[in-house]
Hints:
Layout: E1 2-4, E2 36-42, H1 47-61, E3 66-72, E4 85-87, H2 91-101, E5 105-109, H3 115-120, E6 126-130, H4 136-146, E7 154-159, H5 162-171, E8 179-182, H6 197-203, H7 228-232
Parallel strand pairs: 1-8, 2-3, 2-5, 3-4, 5-6, 6-7, 7-8
Amino acid sequence: xxxxxxxxxxxxxxxxxxxxxxxxxxxxxxxLLIRSLVISWGCYLGGVETALFHRLTAxxxxxxxxxxxxxxxxxxxxxxxxxxHKVSKAPGHLVRYIDEHRFHVITFINTLHNFDVLKSMxxxxxxxxxxxxxxxxxxxSLRFINELKDGGMIxxxxxxxxxxxxxxxxNLRNRPxxxxxxxxxxLDTTLFSARSVGDFLDKYHIPIRxxxxxxxxxxxxxxxxxxxxxxxx
Length: 233
């Protein structure tokens, strides 16, 4: 089953909590107490960390306690100063952190490293696997889930787009029981909003003759796996 968010989530007003896999357990006053944890390999300056920051900011602001857990530090860690988080690669620290905060939902992002910790502690909450893109590590994690090596603990897949959802379906043919949630990247409209073309040209000292030409902005690394050539062609 594919559950799709048809538009990017506005962290101020467009976060539809009913459709969020993290909050789908109950739509009652009790849901306000749902505590969730997202686990990622490291906190770098990439798109995944940016999307994670905006999502966690929105959830915490709206009263849904959400923590981040990183195995390694990175240059993006300073951005998470306002979000509850911990950095450690020791399995025992993860066990204690989960026990301490009694999370109802745990989401592994792009890696299932330390997944066995949940088995050993007999974790009974909801477990999700979220992935962005297609790397060897992600494919191996999907194979692990597809072969039911997770013991059925993982109850849902989260992806940022329909394109990535197709990767999930291709690699999880033996797991029709898993719902695939398309949770598009959030957008902070207090920082990003529509501006007039004239203001844009003036700010970046672009000749006025460009007023009638299409202008494409590219945010990200210019690398083959980002398909920049496909975009500009």
